[in-house]
Design goal:
The complex is a heterodimer of chains A (about 500) and B (about 400). With about 500 residues, chain A is of the alpha/beta class. Chain A is about 30% helix and about 15% strand. Chain A contains 15 helices and 23 strands. In chain A, helix 4 (about 190-200) packs across helix 14 (about 450-475) and helix 11 (about 395-405) crosses helix 14 (about 450-475). Chain A starts with 10 loop residues before the first strand and ends with a strand. The relative contact order of chain A is 0.15. By secondary structure, chain B is an alpha+beta fold. Chain B has one domain (about 25-395): 4-Layer Sandwich (Glutamine Phosphoribosylpyrophosphate, subunit 1, domain 1), CATH 3.60.20. In chain B, about 35% of the residues lie in helices and about 25% in strands. Chain B contains 14 helices and 18 strands. Chain B has a seven-stranded antiparallel beta sheet, with helices on one face. In chain B, a hairpin with a 2-residue loop joins strand 15 and strand 16 (about 340). In chain B, helix 2 packs across helix 12. The chains are: A alpha/beta (about 500), B alpha+beta (about 400). At the A-B interface, strand 9 of A face helix 7 and helix 11 of B.
Chain lengths: ~500, ~400
């Protein structure tokens, strides 16, 4: 008994022996070591306990012989002491440790996006056909003045008026979707390359996360936001200057209030070079920035970075916590040009389960309250808002924008486009899809060109869908929907929540 | 039954915060004599009558500029009152915050089709100097605040217009009926705008008829502002309170913000409201591109999206503007110093049979007619010479106490 675990396997790997071609590909494809080769039977032999249902083997089995099913063990019915609860206890009883996981919150909290419905035109107002008429999704992120001053122009200047106000540098996005910060180290270099190539192709931005910028990504730097997080991995003057903008990461939706931990096994020579830390050492980012203990400290860092970069836009990424509106207001006044709001469903490479599943608030609420607070204070123009943390579709993007976001960032959705099946084992470093690993045998599976085309297709498809929605709404520019909660209605949401969201219930004109 | 007992709109339904927006598909018209020549309101009344079928009798209205040459230096508030209590409350407010130079009923005559009219009164006002100094606001902002206060807080009172040497005349009925009711033929102005409503989802009410006016900015509008939600939230950031539950209101406030407070030239204000497409901006010369790109970036939330044709009246003249893909009709014509715009060319031909030219303004291309300062001064001087025929002038001459 002492050597056996109490935890039964979560899945069962079923192999159709008639369809199996005995090619052994499953053995090679599985990064988790599920399969061994039974030489006597000349068949693959699965260890069910190692399977996490990532479907790498299923996808690559030439005989389509493999099926993964849930291990349907019957437990005595009990709403309180459910299977997952007991499994967590057994795991901790056996290890004495904090439960770790990858990806975002998977608990069945209310998904507000799924309770918001969009409007459309009928009769009094023609809808617009996006295939025939221009449909504008271009978005500029950055600080904007409240008004514009003009002076008399001249014949040479091409018009009777000339701009007298100097605008701060803006980030130009051809579509209001960007890629969320995911560090090199947590994801593979090939994943980073795919994101960078796609960002350039799409006219949007990828974000380095806190792992520094590998030299291979230099050609794409105009489409890269470089992050400066509490560990300061890979941060030096040239790094800050090489991006289109700099993001100060204060927090992350999946794990508000805590730092990061990249295990030494993932720190190979290239990661070590990029992060500027010794090979094989754990990369621990502290919970707070140790030079930011208050809002005035943040202001100093924002302006230090602006000075160092010739006043490139500075974004501040915060996790959505209870007081997010007041925090955001402070961040604007501290000088941030962009605020990146990361909701509690945001993904992660590694997080304690207790933090991921129980800390923070949904992005829908955070966007609504931050946008309203900044309007109440008359400072909404001074900052752009990026909404992230659980954005799954073009519908989520457009609803977030209608609630008040300028743009959305996608992390998990981008990884899913690269083959990720959200098996939540990013922290183990054995990702069979070559995304969230540094093992050379696995990372080489992800072809950056293919990855870039997957990502480009996804964002283009979402962009087309958003154009369809705008057309149905009878507007031809995204700024006419931004913050236009009049075009949203809530279904099955209580009055309090509707009030917080600033959305009317369905049925009210 | 006394007039005071007749509600001019069922308040419970309309005063409820923003729940009902009044959509409109309508007919509109504008006349502007750029020389400052003043013409009778009867002209625009006839033009509007020819577009009878574009409205459904649930709202019509007009605004005239240069109509009070005897008292051009005072703000003229046209008030609609539900009952005498609302009138009393409003007068109490006005006397506290303004010097009331003169007040009188707005002259009307009985017309078939016009019923349940509210109490209609006009006040010629000067901000009370000590109150103005207390608030530290500009004179115009002070007046805007007063208009917003009355509309938002005094139950059953509604400021139909609040500019100098101008006034709005609106109500429930077909425009030609409303114009006759208000005896428009007895006024002369250098700019006139008119409107007939076809409200689609709510019955008309007097305050909801066009034009919508703030200070000297008056707006008539045909269409629907699909971006209303964000336009409204944007305006609220600058202290405007949208209380009228109609999308046209935001057009008036946006013009006020852009022209008066942000001091944008009218051409550029139009480029904010009906912004050029990025694909066109990208092809412009560098200076023009940076200007128009900046306007779009900074004023994205002010862009009016959805089908519209609007005519704006200001102290400087008249501007007509279509949405960026021209989803509502708008025709323009010129004859001598007069510029005409209308939903239908027939309306223009009705009052100007042979214009020198007529054209169909392109999407987002404003028609701008400006009255010269000199022309206006001359017109006012001429009016003073022939004073005595108008009731306002008579009352002023009698030196009625305020």
């Amino acid at each position: 008994m002492a050597t056996r675990t109490l935890i039964p396997p979560e899945f069962r790997v079923l192999i159709d022996e008639n369809a199996c071609l005995q090619c052994r590909r499953c053995v090679g494809q599985c990064g988790w070591g599920v399969y061994s080769w039974d030489t006597t039977r000349n068949r693959p032999s699965p260890d069910h306990s190692k399977c996490g249902a990532c479907h790498r083997c299923v996808t690559f089995c030439p005989g389509q012989a493999i099926t993964i099913t849930r291990n349907k063990l019957a437990f005595k019915a009990n709403d309180n002491w459910a299977e997952q609860v007991m499994k967590a206890i057994w795991k901790q009883a056996e290890t004495g440790g904090v439960l770790l996981t990858g990806m975002g919150n998977d608990k069945p909290y209310l998904r507000i996006f799924d309770h918001l419905l969009l409007d459309a035109c009928q009769v009094t107002n023609p809808s617009i056909d996006p295939l025939r008429e221009p449909m504008e999704l271009r978005t500029y992120l950055g600080r904007k003045p409240d008004s514009v001053e003009v002076v008399a122009g001249s014949f040479e200047s091409g018009g009777p008026f000339r701009l007298a106000t100097e605008l701060d540098t803006q980030l130009r996005l051809e579509t209001p979707i960007m890629f969320a910060g995911m560090s090199y180290g947590s994801v593979s270099l090939n994943a980073h390359k795919a994101l960078a190539m796609a960002a350039q192709e799409l006219g949007t931005f990828m974000n380095t996360g806190e792992g520094g910028l590998h030299s291979d990504l230099e050609p794409y730097k105009d489409h890269i936001i470089v992050q400066c997080a509490s560990g300061r991995f890979g941060v030096d003057a040239s790094y800050l200057q090489s991006g289109a903008a700099v993001e100060i990461k204060i927090g992350q939706g999946a794990k508000p209030g805590i730092g990061g931990h990249l295990p030494g096994e993932k720190i190979d020579q290239q990661v070590s070079l990029t992060r500027m830390i010794p090979q094989g050492t754990d990369a621990l980012s502290p919970a707070p920035h140790h030079d930011i203990y208050s809002i005035e400290d943040l202001r100093q860092l924002i302006y230090a970075i602006k000075e160092a970069t010739g006043y490139k836009p500075v974004s501040v990424k915060i996790a959505c916590v209870h007081n997010v509106a007041a925090i955001a207001s402070g961040v604007v006044r501290a000088g941030a040009d962009i605020i990146y709001l990361d909701g509690f469903r945001g993904g992660t490479g590694a997080s304690p389960v207790i933090i991921r599943d129980h800390v923070g608030i949904p992005i829908e609420i955070a966007v609504a309250v931050v946008d309203q607070r900044l309007r109440d204070e008359g400072i909404r123009n001074r900052v752009s808002l990026i909404a992230a943390g659980g954005i799954r579709s073009a519908a989520d993007v457009i609803k977030a924008i209608a609630l008040g976001a300028d743009a959305c960032a996608i992390g998990t959705a981008a990884l899913v486009a690269l083959g990720c099946h959200v098996c939540q084992r990013c922290h183990t470093g054995s990702c069979s899809w070559g995304i969230c690993t540094q093992r050379p045998d696995l990372t080489r599976r992800l072809d950056p060109e293919w990855g870039a085309s997957q990502l480009t297709n996804l964002v283009k498809a979402w962009t087309h869908e958003m154009a369809e929605v705008l057309g149905a709404l009878g507007v031809n520019a995204i700024e006419s929907l931004r913050g236009n909660r009049e075009r949203l209605r809530g279904l099955d949401l209580d009055e309090n929540l509707l009030g917080i969201l600033g959305v009317k219930p369905a049925g009210v004109a | 039954m006394s007039r005071a007992a007749l509600p001019f709109h069922p308040r419970a339904a309309y005063r409820e915060e923003s729940l009902s927006r009044i959509l409109g598909n309508c007919g509109l018209m504008g006349i502007c004599h750029q020389s400052g020549k003043r013409v009778s309101g009867e002209l625009i009344l006839r033009g509007m009558a020819s577009m009878h079928d574009r409205g459904n009798g649930l709202g019509g209205g007009f605004a005239g500029y240069g109509i009070y040459p005897e008292l051009p230096q005072f703000y003229c508030f046209h008030l609609l009152f539900n009952d005498s209590l609302a009138k009393k409350d409003t007068e109490c407010y006005l006397r506290k915050n303004f010097r009331v130079v003169m007040d009188e009923p707005i002259p009307t005559k009985p017309v078939k089709g016009i019923e349940n009219e509210p109490i209609l009164w006009r006040y010629f006002l000067d901000p009370a100097p000590e109150r103005l100094a207390e608030t530290q606001l500009s004179e115009e902002d002070y007046v805007v605040h007063a208009v917003m206060d009355i509309n938002a807080y005094i139950d059953g009172a509604f400021v139909a217009s609040s500019g100098k040497n101008m006034g709005a005349f609106k109500g429930v009925g077909f425009p030609e009926e409303v114009g006759e009711f208000y005896r428009l033929d007895e006024y002369k102005g250098w700019t006139w705008i008119g409107h007939g409503r076809f409200p689609t989802n709510t019955p008309g009410w007097w305050g909801g008829a066009h034009p919508f006016v703030l200070l000297d900015c008056s707006v008539v509008h045909n269409g629907e502002i699909s971006s209303y939600g964000i336009n409204r939230r944007y305006l609220e950031m600058f202290g405007y309170r949208c209380t009228l539950q109609t999308d046209t209101e935001v057009v008036a406030y946006l013009f006020d913000l852009l022209l008066r407070r942000h001091k944008l030239p009218i051409e550029l204000a139009c480029k904010v409201l009906a912004a050029p497409f990025w694909k066109d901006i990208d092809l412009m010369s560098e200076d023009e591109r940076s200007l128009l790109a900046a306007l779009r970036m900074v004023y994205g939330s002010a862009m009016l999206n959805g089908p519209f044709a609007v005519v704006l009246g200001t102290r400087d003249g008249m501007v007509a503007l279509n949405d960026r893909i021209k989803l509502r009709p708008l025709v323009a014509a010129r004859k001598g110093d007069a510029i005409y715009v209308a939903s239908e060319e027939s309306a223009i031909r009705e009052i100007c049979a042979k214009p020198d030219e007529s054209w169909m303004p392109a999407a987002g291309e404003p028609v701008i007619a400006l009255v010269s300062d000199k022309g206006r001064e001359k017109a006012i001087a001429r009016a003073h010479q022939t004073a005595g025929q108008r009731r306002v002038a008579q009352s002023a001459a009698l030196g009625r106490p305020s």
